[in-house]
Amino acid sequence: MKQLLPCLLLLSLVACIQQPATDKDGYKTHQTFGPGEEAKIAAAFLSLTDSSRITLKAGDYKFDNLSIAQVKHILIEGAGAGKTVLDFSGQSQGGEGIRVTDTKGFTIDGMTLKDSKGDLIKINKSEQVVITNLHAIWSKADSTSGGYAIYPVLCKNVLVENCYAEGASDAGIYVGQTDSAVVRKCKAFKNVAGCEIENTSNAEVYDNEFWGNTAGFLVFDLPDLSKRGGNVKAYNNYLHDNNERNFAKAGSFGSTWGVGNAAPGSGIVILAASNVELYKNRIINNNSNAISVVSGFFIDENAGSKINDNYFPIPRNIHIHDNEMKMDTAFPAAVYEHHTGKILVGIEQQLKAMDPSRKRIPLIAYDGITTNLLTKGTAINPDSLCIQQNDPNLFINIDALHMKDKGWKPSLDVTPYTCK
Fold this sequence. Notes:
Keywords: Signal
Radius of gyration: 25 Å
Protein name: Parallel beta-helix repeat-containing protein
Strand content: 35-45%
Helix content: 10-25%
Signal peptide: 1-23
InterPro entries: Beta_helix, PbH1, Pectin_lyas_fold, Pectin_lyase_fold/virulence, SO_2930-like_dom
Structural class: mainly beta
Domain Right handed beta helix: 78-220
Oligomer: single chain
């Protein structure tokens, strides 16, 4: 027995060496920094190893940029939004404030990011991403702002929660080309789009507030990207007073509908996306349209040439039900200076010409372009637009293919689209 004790002690020591101690949250390495240690922090980000935790104390930090790549099980935490503030306004070159690439198990929690030249945080080709208690803001909301405040793209299993985005020249909260995403309990104010789900599948967006943007919420599928979106649910959101001018960068006003084409006064816009359900949202005083459902043909007559496994231009299986919707008595002023906005104004004018007693364009606008265009079919509602709403002045089928015809008469009959 006495001979065994040294062996057991030796084995115990070897085991300790082979299994480094972890902190209470399971991270093997934990580094803490304070203001004034920016050079050390930047170096620590670049040299991170798997299972690392970095804590940034309360205070103001100034960075050119920060980068993390090819690691697993990472936590970057601050003392809270408004307490730990990372300022990128002094960047010497364009680019993201924080760029995260090829990670698995990445969490960022409890800080404010502000005033980068490009996107504030871009997380690319990563899995198991959590972005929580993060404020991402530009002090000035105009075309000089970066495109995206919070920007996971080409990811899998993403959670964005309890975040706030302001000032983005594209979308405050954007999830792109991603599989499985949740955006919840977030706020977005004074962006072009409050939130955008683009070419993303299996997404849920709920318990958010998007207001004071050009458009509140976008669900887009665009061509020439790596995957198709679908299976998107948005519910229990409060989307209100999104009536501001569109200040997107010039390059986003493209033929494949960049966000520059979103009209001021848009609550929700569905573009070429399929299998989307909108329910129990409060969509209030977005004064051009509460909800728009449009195809890629609405903005690009050559959209059919872009059809492939990752893109289909016509929205299908759209279910809109049990939302509270209201618009004010007039378009927002900014709509008259915007190209898509002018189309909506023209639609309202045509409706008033057909019925002088009419006050406003309806709450839900559908471009009426269906797969009949591709199949030469004649089916009514072949793409399963399903509406269950009891609102007055509810619906318009714009019949966009005939808008330039002399006898153009958009239809207000929702009957073909009422859920059976």
